[in-house]
């Protein structure tokens, strides 16, 4: 795939799991140099839900479809969910390989709907490892939930 239209950096954070949570996304356009930071929070949630919300809300900001989007996340749950597990979940009626209901089903459905509007690639990065944009979205996600503490 050629250069992306948008690079979407995302992170979610939670104080306790469940507990107050925050999410953050940075949308960066390599061609224009534009950069937008987004955040949100929830008083009672889980870390996985916040990781998902970061990607979902970031994708919802991209109005031109299809766009080439490169999603960068430190969440194996999100990356593997969207690249490995989703087809099986859909095929199995939103049940896991163990025949249990998929957790966060409603968010997965919303997320995959947004992903399929675009041409997305995904990259996992190690969290808290010095990646500048990952460090920034982590900081923003933590700040987003701190209002509940």
Automatic annotation (TrEMBL):
Binds 1 Mg(2+) ion per subunit. May bind a second metal ion at a regulatory site, or after substrate binding. Pfam families: RNase_H. GO terms for molecular function: magnesium ion binding; nucleic acid binding; RNA-DNA hybrid ribonuclease activity. One of its GO terms (cellular component) is cytoplasm. One of its GO terms (biological process) is DNA replication, removal of RNA primer. Its cofactor is Mg(2+). Monomer. This is Ribonuclease H.
């Amino acid at each position: 795939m050629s250069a992306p239209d948008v690079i979407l950096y995302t992170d979610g954070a939670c104080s306790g799991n469940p507990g107050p949570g925050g999410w953050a996304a940075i949308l960066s356009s390599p061609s224009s140099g534009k950069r937008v930071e987004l955040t949100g929070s929830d008083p009672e949630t889980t870390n996985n839900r916040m990781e998902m919300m970061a990607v979902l809300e970031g994708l919802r900001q991209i109005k031109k479809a299809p766009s080439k989007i490169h999603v960068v996340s430190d969440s194996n749950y999100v990356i593997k969910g969207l690249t490995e597990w989703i087809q099986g979940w859909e095929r199995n009626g939103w049940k896991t390989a163990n025949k249990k209901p998929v957790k966060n089903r409603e968010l997965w459905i919303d997320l995959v709907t947004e992903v399929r509007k675009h041409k997305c690639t995904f990259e996992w990065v190690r969290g808290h490892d010095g990646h500048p944009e990952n460090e920034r979205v982590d900081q923003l996600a933590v700040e987003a939930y701190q209002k509940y503490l």
